[in-house]
Every structure is written in structure tokens, then in C-alpha cells.
Sequence to fold (342 residues):
Amino acid sequence: MTQLTTVMLLFGGESSEHTVSISSARNVFAALDETKFDVELAFIDQSGKWWLLDSFDQASDLADVSQLVPILGTKKFTTLPSTKYITPDVILPILHGENGEDGTVQGLARLMHIPIVGCEIATSAICIDKVLTKQLLEQNGIVTVPYAVHLAGEPLPSFSQLSAQLGDTLFIKPAGCGSSVGVSKARSDEELSSALDEAHKFDVKVLIEKAINARELEVAMLGNGANAKASGVGEIRPDSEFYTFESKYSASSQSQAIIPADIDSELSEQIKAIAVKAFAVVGGQGLSRIDFFLSDDGTLYLNEINTLPGFTNISMYPKLWRQEGLSYSALIEALITNALDK
Ligand SMILES: Nc1ncnc2c1ncn2[C@@H]1O[C@H](COP(=O)(O)OP(=O)(O)O)[C@@H](O)[C@H]1O
Ligand SMILES: [Mg+2]
Fold:
């Protein structure tokens, strides 16, 4: 009998995407082949405490659950108050946003000497910051949407000045969130002011972008370094004015994922080539979903790089690999193998 690989499935988290992470993790858990993997459920509550669960249902009632504590440099966690040691071969972070997707958990894994699925510290920290990502991509000749930055405490910019540079509709978003949290449009000084207030609830750094009338195209990356492969291109058709939190996740959402996207093969190859280049530029490892805007005038912009994309049952990342013939289970296994090979 072959030995099982112990996987610490890490989910929940402190970010605004806590519930998204739980639904992603449930799917990932269901897909992990129990003849190959021994899975430990490590849940991070919204206050940032770690818990060792026996089942997902315990996440909503932690009264009888043990806390999970890292012992740095030993590859071991211990539970509290009882002491049971957990020695994962690999950490599988199904976390989004702050203190999950941003290099912090990746840093902890490094200090624990445990391999972790996906991008390492610097890549995660850069890609969570939409401004740093743009700066790095632009330095490398990859086109992103024109923008300005507003830092908390700076004077309120004037809408007319911004719009002279960025057009008559602006998109305002926190630099470091995901799932469209804190994202809104502005067409006047008043809207700009409330959009900035809203975005600053989530981040001191806020991005002000030109609104692009565009199709939203996405590519999934899988693999390490030079061996990373791009999937085919998929398209998201949001059911609302733009792809909001509700249009992403609500049960009644009519948003569509079209795979493969109805675009010509030349454009599809071009998008895949940019995704491969962008993944290399940011030093991507393991996985990422790379999102593009194709504007009405044919300009292609790289919108963002998600180093830990969603794994819910409607999520694009696993669907794009499904289209390439890789089942959800085979995909998770490939991610774990890549982490162990890093
Ligand atoms: N500059 C823009 N022009 C038009 N739509 C945008 C722009 N920026 C964001 N959006 C819309 O808002 C959604 C969320 O923004 P995005 O930058 O992808 O942040 P998140 O990390 O929250 O997904 C996008 O999927 C798109 O529908
Ligand atoms: Mg997005």
C-alpha cells in the first residue's frame, strides 16, 4: 500500500472573502482522492484564529474544537488545549484576499518548512496589490487599464481632472481586495467621493481606473516556472452592469461562463501568450487565473492576476482545466504534486 500524503486544507480566513473560501474548500475536499490523501481541515476564523476541524459543519460552532498552533521550523502543528501533533506534507491554501492570498500564509509555510500549493511570498504579495501588479506588468510591456492611485488621507481628487485623463466613467477599487468587494463606478464628484470612501474601508491604497467597455476573458495557469501551461480562454458574461460580488456568487446569479470563449484562434493564442509572459514576470508558481478585458475597440488589457482563484462549483479556474480534459480531482492532485516538486 502506498503511503498517503497528508494535506492540510487551509480555508476560511480573515478577509471579506471568508464565505467564498468555505464553499471553495468544500468542493476541494470532496475532490481529494481519499486513497491518496489524508486531509486535515484547518479553519481560520474571521478573527484569525486557526482551528482543527473534524468536519466543515464545525466551522459554525467552534465550542468543542481544538485550536491549531504552528511550531516554527518543525513541520509540525499542535492542537490546544490537548496536544496532538499534525505533520502535513503540504499545505493547500484555499484562501482569498488578505492574510491568505497575500504572501502571509506563504511566509508562515516557509517558516514551518512545509511546502505550500501555489505562488510563493513575493508573487502573492505583488499580485494581491493591483497597483504593484500593474507597475510590474507595464515595465514588461504588458498593457493594463490606464489608472491613478488615491491613498487614504490625500486630498479628494477632482472628477473633472481625473476624467480628462481617464474618461467620463471611472472604476474605483481597493488595491488589495478581490471578489469585487469595495468596487464601484463614478461619473461625478459626489460619486467619486463616496466610491473612494467605500474602497478605503478595505484598503489605504485605492485604484481609480478608466472604465473599459469590454468583454471579460480569463485564462488559467498551471505548473511551475518555465513548465507552466495556459488553459484555453474562457469568457465571463456578468448578469449585471459589471461583475459584482452578487453576480459572481449569488445563488440566483445569471452570470455565464462561456468556455471556450467565442474568439478567433489568433486572439486566443495571443491572450495565452500574454498570460504565460505575465505569470513569468511575476514569478508565478503552481496556479493563477489571469483576467483580461477586450475592449470594444479591440485593445486587450490585462486586468488582474489571481494567485488563489475561486474553486466554488461555478468557478472559472477548475472549469477551464475541465475543458482541457483535466477533472477537478486530477487538477487538485496536479497542484499538490507541483507543490511537492517545488
Ligand atoms: N476598469 C474597468 N472597466 C470596466 N469594468 C471594470 C473595470 N475594473 C473592474 N471592472 C469590473 O469590476 C469587476 C471586478 O473588478 P476586478 O478588477 O476584477 O477586481 P476583483 O479583484 O474584485 O475581481 C470586473 O470583473 C469587471 O466586471
Ligand atoms: Mg476580478
Remarks:
- The first strand starts at residue 5 and ends at 12.
